[in-house]
Amino acid sequence: MRREIPLIITFVVGVAYVISYFIPHWPFYEFEKWFTDWFLIVAAFAIWLGALNLLKISTIKIFRKRPDWPYSVIIIISFLIVAIAGFAGGIEFRNSGTAFDWLYINVYTPLSSTMFALLAFFVASASYRAFRARNFEATLLLLAAFFVMLGRVPVGDLITSWLPYEYQMSQWANWTMNVLNTAGQRAIMIGIALGLISNSLRIIIGLERSYLGGD
């Protein structure tokens, strides 16, 4: 029954959501509200379990002096500071002027900016590998990237200033982004949507059971 009960719950909830989406009338729309409430309750317990598991793993790592254990000390201290600041602020802990808000603006936001600044170097490295003209497709990607980047800066229009406005580099860059790039993005989004539908149906009817920890 450890597998059958989760499969039954998944099937019932999945079918209820599908029916309530296509038939948004009583009593079907009530199902969506009930299951959404249950989802929020389960998510709240999951957050607590995740936090307690994080503290447990970090504490064990510290006491056993495993590699990089000082980072676990920082994790526990940071977690406790943020949790205490949040509980001290009550239900309005996210309002401006609270301790939680101060931590978010003065600690979390600068750290996030630093992380994204470091990601720029990884993006540059990945772009260098992707833009090498090793075959026909890579050459097209390289040329498209070159013209788009050139059209996004003033020097692009300066080079093609002798052409009519609609044929200048910025207009070619806009056409590439609005036509070619949009078509590619839509194709990718359609593929993602079809993949989501297929995977959701597999989960609802019980063919996909990896979320149960096996198969």
The number of strands is 0
Calculate Rg over CA atoms.
Answer: 26 Å
Shape from CA axes? extended
Determine the mean pLDDT: 86
Distance between the termini: 16 Å
Structural class: mainly alpha
Poorly predicted spans: none
Q: What is the number of helical segments per DSSP (H or I, 4+ residues)?
A: 7
User: Hey, roughly how much beta strand do the residues contain?
Assistant: under 5%
Helix content: over 70%
Biggest sheet record: none
Order of helices and strands: HHHHHHH
Plain-language structure description:
There is one protein chain. This protein is mainly α and about 220 residues long. The protein has 7 helices and no strands. Helix 1 (about 5-20) packs across helix 2, helix 2 packs across helix 3 (about 70-90) and helix 5 crosses helix 7 (about 170-205).
